[in-house]
From TrEMBL:
EC nos: 2.4.2.45
Short name of one Pfam family: UbiA
A molecular function GO annotation: glycosyltransferase activity
GO cellular component: membrane
Organism taxonomic ancestry: Bacteria, Bacillati, Actinomycetota, Actinomycetes, Streptosporangiales
Name this polypeptide is given: Decaprenyl-phosphate phosphoribosyltransferase
Gene3D superfamilies: UbiA prenyltransferase (1.10.357.140)
Species per Swiss-Prot/TrEMBL record: Sphaerisporangium album
Broadest EC class assigned to this enzyme: transferase
Membrane-topology annotation of the record: Multi-pass membrane protein
Length: 326
């Protein structure tokens, strides 16, 4: 079965190495008619490969945030490392459950998007009913893993699953609330890592992580709006309530709060002052990507930019060294 998607004035679908590629254009004229194949062999993907892609293993890099609390506390003993590893695995399972549910709910909108139309559920590779079963199994598995490690951790996972289920069903269409909801997912990752490792969480830590999360989410929305223009509201209806100027204000304000709070915290502790430099440069570099409309996938921006990776490495070295001296 084929679905024809008319893509007016925003770009063209081309073929690079046998794969469809979306290329934006600046012309206001209609440029292409996209063709999406719906069926078992869409995108030439097997069912097993489609299930794996829907679980979004590339997105699991976000779950490295579970290590934020142990790193901030400077605690690296064996028990903490085991708890952090268990937290990463558990949250990856929970996040994959949300991805399965989200892709089923958004399947029709995804088929209109130049990139998301190739997702396995939207392309018909993974049946919607099977995806819902996978979502339920993964959610229960995540709750079980968390409870087996620390009962309190199951509560954090339960909150994450509940909030994101509401987001998939309704909250993504509620202006401002959807920004806060997505940002809360990053904050809950950091909180979960602290709970699994048995570490207390300071108010400084929570403010920095929460503000930085909002910085990245607002930057993501700004980039989506810049990339898709008027067509953005067809693929993400919530964007119709935002202007580029408002989103720019949110990511600039939240970035300022995150950086200022981190500076106040770092200068109170011995050996942490130098860590301000690479972190400030990383914020500026990431903001540059946002301003260019390139931060639609934050994890991809970080992993593909050697400057950001280098600054992250320098920050880690300085932070660990400062912790050792302190």
């Amino acid at each position: 079965m084929l679905i024809l998607t008319f893509l007016p004035g925003r770009g063209a679908l081309t073929s690079v190495a046998g794969r469809p590629t979306w290329e934006p254009t600046t012309s206001g004229r209609p440029t292409s008619v996209g063709v999406t194949q719906i069926g078992p062999n869409a995108a030439g993907t097997s069912l097993a490969a489609g299930l794996l892609r829907t679980a979004r293993p590339k997105q699991w890099s976000k779950n490295l945030l579970v290590a934020a609390a142990p790193v901030a506390a400077g605690t690296y003993d064996a028990g903490t490392l085991r708890g952090t590893g268990a937290a990463f695995v558990t949250f990856s399972v929970a996040a994959s459950a949300v991805y399965f549910l989200n892709d089923v709910i958004d399947v029709r909108k995804d088929r209109l998007h130049p990139v998301r139309r190739l997702r396995p559920i939207a392309a018909g590779t993974v049946p919607e009913r099977l995806a819902l079963v996978c979502a339920a199994v993964l959610a229960l598995a995540a709750l079980g893993l968390a409870a087996a490690w620390r009962p309190q951790a199951a509560g954090v996972i339960g909150i994450y699953l509940l909030v994101n289920t509401l987001y998939c069903l309704k909250l993504k269409h509620v202006v401002i609330v959807e920004l806060a909801t997505v940002a809360s997912g990053f904050l809950l990752r950091a909180v979960f890592g602290g709970v699994m490792a048995g570490l207390p969480l300071s108010q400084w830590f929570l403010i920095v992580v929460g503000a930085a999360a909002l910085f990245m989410v607002a930057g993501k929305r700004f980039s989506e709006l810049a990339l898709l223009g008027p067509k953005a509201t067809a693929t993400r209806p919530g964007l119709e309530h935002y202007s580029a100027d408002y989103l720019r204000f949110v990511w600039q304000a939240s970035g300022t709060v995150a950086m200022t709070t981190y500076c106040l915290w770092a200068f109170e502790l011995p050996g942490r002052q130098l860590t301000v430099v690479p972190l400030a440069l990383a914020f500026l570099r990431y903001g540059w990507h946002v301003d260019r409309g390139e931060a639609g996938e934050p994890e991809a921006v970080v992993l593909r930019d050697p400057w950001l990776l280098g600054l992250a490495a320098v920050w880690i070295v300085l932070f660990v060294a400062g912790t050792a001296r302190g």
